[in-house]
Amino acid sequence: MRERFDVVIAGAGPAGAQCARDLAERNYEVLVLETESEDEFPRQSNKSTAGTFMSAMTGFAIPDDVVMNYTDNVVLESPNDHYVRNQTGAVLEFAEFKQWLVSEGRNKGATYRFDARVSAPIMENGEIVGVRYDGDEEVYADIVIDATGPAAPLAKELDVCDLKRDHQAIGVEYEFEGVEMDHDDYADLRDAMMLRLDHDLAPGGYSWIFHTGEDTAKVGLCYIQNGSHQKYAKDGMGIDDYLEYWLDSDPRFDDAEKIEGTQAHRGSAHIQPPDSMSTDSFMAIGDTVPTVDPLWGEGIHKGMKSARAAAATADSALKPDEPDTSAENLSVYDQLWHSEVAPKHNARLMMTELLYLAPNERYDQLMDDLRSTGQDTLRQINGGDRRAIAKLTHLSDMPILVEYARRRLDI
């Protein structure tokens, strides 16, 4: 006899767990399959910076218990300058946050199976009807959701999202103590989340320091292994080498040490225009779908918003006496993603790519541009406001714009 649920979700990260939470609250039978063992969930190596803002905290009722530190400012650094934006944020204890989401879903009736690696979709008449996991185990559902992040075994098999490896960003991060958060030569990072644009440290990407309390911080960097990275990269250096190089060259880390018992936190994400995110009986959510904000990622909030949009779409598709999980009906999720999750995505992605193409001296000028245009500029840019982007554009940026256009034509 076939084991069957209303919805099967691959992946118990923020997106998958939030989707299960929403669907279970609507009384659907939901199964979440997670690769990691429950005893180790989530592994240290699978953590992230987990920085978010109050809109996410209140919108998803995230409790104070999973917050390492509330921050007052977002700081952008360039090689020789910085800009401070007053905005309350929260640095989450990511492991406890993910465990809380799982507990929330279970309390509402969702079923979780750990040590359950999803390997392939089960197809009948050209449509997905379930998934295989742990070799030959099978489970069937009216709707299958891929929330596995960049691995995306189901989305890739179904040719959803059009994921390209050369547009995948990789990142590494450690937790440190002994960090000088208020060094005389730099911005005051006490109670701040800082992002630094500097190709010397993160060629084709950015680095960060997120204050987690007293003299502790999450410190990391990421970059996309594309043409921009290759232009600025140092021969023979990988991502761990760049982090060590930063630690050795920045005086804020003179007395810093990795916190005992913590490991490297590694992750990746796709930075590209998303293709379709759904098809018959299937949706992709969270980091499985490419998305990024220009000047701060905030992937947690985006992932959870995509989960909520998918849950609402599934609810609509499964409610009638005769459920309709056709591609046409589930395309409502794509519409919600573009209107609610990542509005004006193309404009925001354009700003992101332009940032990574800009040389270091342009980053110094950007700090001055942000000071002269006002506090709302960052919010407008992250919202995809092309007029705000235009405010930061100078005639001297023409070579960057030409290079951007050339790269877009090559995609």
**Distance between the amino and carboxyl termini:** 47 Å
Order of helices and strands: EHEEHEEHEEEEHEEEEHHEEEEHHHHHHH
Q: How does the overall form come out from the CA principal axes?
A: globular
The low-confidence parts are none
Q: Beta-strand level of the residues, as a percent range?
A: 25-35%
Q: What is the CATH class name of the largest domain?
A: Alpha Beta
Query: Compute the gyration radius: what is it?
Result: 21 Å
Structure class: alpha/beta
Pfam family, one: Lycopene_cycl
Organism: Haloarcula taiwanensis
GO molecular function: oxidoreductase activity
Protein name: FAD-dependent oxidoreductase
Structure commentary:
With 411 residues, this protein is α/β, with parallel strands linked by helices. It has three domains: 182 residues, FAD/NAD(P)-binding domain (3-Layer(bba) Sandwich); 124 residues, 2-Layer Sandwich (D-Amino Acid Oxidase, Chain A, domain 2); 64 residues, no CATH class. Helices cover 35% and strands 27% of the residues. It contains 13 helices and 17 strands. The longest helix has 20 residues.
